[in-house]
Amino acid sequence: MSQDVRTLLEAVKNGTVDIDTALMTLKQAPFQDLGYAHVDLHRTVRQGVPEVIYGEGKSVEQVVGIIQSMKANGIDNILVTRLPKAMAETIQTQISQTMQMHVSLHYYEAGRIGIVGDMPVETTSSHIAVVTGGTSDYNVAEECALTAEFYGNSVQRIYDVGVAGIHRLLHHLDELMSAKVIVVIAGMEGALASVVGGLVDVPVIAVPTSVGYGTAFGGVTALLSMLNSCASGVSVVNIDNGFGAAYMANMINHIGESK
User: Which architecture, in CATH terms, is 127-254?
Assistant: First the structure.
């Protein structure tokens, strides 16, 4: 049960909200049909976090419309992934002009992430380590790290510590071993995930990237290597899927955290 519903039911129990008001709140349409999108307004009820807008392939007008729908239904913090810079600038202009309330879209170019609202002030006591093989994995890593931070996680970035210079990784053993979950992001042959998996006693989420020469096959080689990891405790998400890794890491990192 989501915290919002629990809070509502507790308010009914202690008499600060009457039954009819609570019933009307729960009867709200679970989605809004915009014609081009069915905005999922009850995802927070089901999963604890609101719908995420995938920006790539959508028009500016579609993204703005979804943001307006979510804001009108009380969703203050909204995450937009895979958002091109030029599109983000246009969206910011349009939402400032069309929405009566002041709404800002904060854009993080490295991760192609747009955030309506603010990053959480309070973060988890435990942390997620985001580790990359090389600097070329930076964009996927930032998508991952920023998404994790958006969901209220403490994040430790450990970048450019791939197997071509393994001493760089070993220099960060303390940070790795103190993390609650580790996301390893690497292209080429994707060996870094197995190395990290063999060093730590926490879950490792591997993200293959499309970085590499010809036989890297756009990340397929790294994907297959990570799927065949000989280290236990390594799971794998899709190629370049920093968001998916962050979402899973967030779920793991919040286990045991106070609500």
Answer: 3-Layer(aba) Sandwich (3.40)
How does pLDDT run across 77-114, given as a tens digit for each residue?
999 999 999 999 898 888 877 765 567 889 999 999 99
Distance of alpha carbon 23 from alpha carbon 5, whole angstroms:
11
Handedness of CA 82, 85, 90, 91 (dihedral sign): positive
C-alpha 141/C-alpha 2 separation (Å) is: 29
The pairing of strands 113-116 and 181-186 is: unpaired
The label of the residue with tokens 């070329």 reads 136
Helix axes 60-72, 85-98, angle to 10 degrees: 50
> Domain residues of the chain, as ranges?
3-116, 127-254
**Pure H helices in 130-256:** 138-150, 166-170, 173-178, 192-197, 220-227, 242-253
CA angle, 244 as apex, 243 and 250 as ends, to 5°? 85
Sign of the CA dihedral with 82 first, then 86, 90, and 95 last: positive
Axis-axis angle for helices 138-150, 242-253 (nearest 10): 40
What pLDDT, in 10s, does the model give residues 126-156? 999 999 999 999 999 999 999 999 999 999 9
Edge-first strand order for the sheet with 113-116 is 53-54, 78-81, 113-116, 105-108
